[in-house]
Amino acid sequence: MPPEDPAERPGPDVGASRVAGTSAVPGPTANDRADPAELYAALDLGTNSCRMLIAQPKGSQLHVVDSFSKSVQLGNGLEASGRLSRSSMARTIGALKICRRKLETHDVRRMRLVATEACRRAINSAEFIGLVERETQLPLEIIQPEEEARLAVVSCAPLVSTKTEQLLVVDIGGGSTELVWIDLTRVPRHDRSRAIMRLHAGFQGASDDPFPRAKVVDWISIPLGVATLKDQFRDVTDDAARFALMSWHFEECLAEFSPYADAEGLVDPGFQIIGTSGTVTTVAATHLNLRRYDRNKVDGLRMTTEQIDRVIRGYLAMGPDGRRNDPRIGRDRHSLIMSGAAILQALLRVWPTDRLSVADRGLREGLLYAQMSADGVLDDGPY
């Protein structure tokens, strides 16, 4: 099943979805010059969660000043109705009001606040964007799948090994999953991480770009994530059968991704998969037996496929009640972990690499890096 073309979906005029008009959260003017000490914000409103980071440039990296994360289940019921429900919108507005207060407290003026798959698909997303404008005055915009995939890739740049020649970045979201395959063979080893960072300007790159370019072989956005895949198989009552059906169905959706046909024989030391999502970090936390989540132990961890498979088999053995009460999974994640694990298992079945790099980073970090590098406030200047 090929991914749905967003242009063919019913829904709002996405190009007009950036909120216009005045906002009580001030933004930079056309004459403003970026100050390296200034704070930046990035908000990712997905199908399941509302997450925001406020950060400051620090050398070639970023220093997080404040953060927010809440499960709002914006896409709850979307698969069946095609609409965002009033209760889901109300929960989300409540979370966005908290974000607005944080932005005002820190006097943040440079920000990007984006919505993804749930708002791309919902036929009433224009109504929701208008409600956000009236209730919070936040400049929320709906981004297209290519930009979502590009920003997820950018966020993972620091985790790219200098030995990597073929890179697959996988972002498992609530409503969609993005995969990007990148060829780095023409990029000098010392510049491979920077070459990934420069993709924030576009997958094709500028024709006059003087730097060695990472080549994007192919990318795909599959309109199935942990929430939407779970919803499609909610009628299957047997836990193990539901997991198997979800995994094989997701693999069928990879048929239009060109590296899928060439997967056999690609496993070598120069191939790296980076997974960025709550699913991947939860699997890592379970593997490390973390009763209290620790980002410093999870981000950048390399797990073998045997370790991942052991964790997933453990989830199946627990059953729904065991997963609900496992502190390593968490109350917000237990109902979605098996659909995410099904996606992860399908990917490792197709590309049987022996390792996966875990990234506790994603769209928010990509938004921050892109803003900061465009403003030239990172030590290495614009990428």
From TrEMBL:
One of its GO terms (molecular function) is pyrophosphatase activity. It comes from the Bacteria. Residues 54-372 form the Ppx/GppA phosphatase N-terminal domain. Pfam families: Ppx-GppA (PF02541). Residues 1-33 are annotated as: Disordered. InterPro entries: ATPase_NBD, GppA/Ppx_hydrolase, Ppx_GppA_N. Signal peptide: none annotated. Residues 1-11 have a biased composition (Basic and acidic residues). This is Ppx/GppA phosphatase. The lineage of its organism: Bacteria, Pseudomonadati, Pseudomonadota, Alphaproteobacteria, Rhodobacterales.
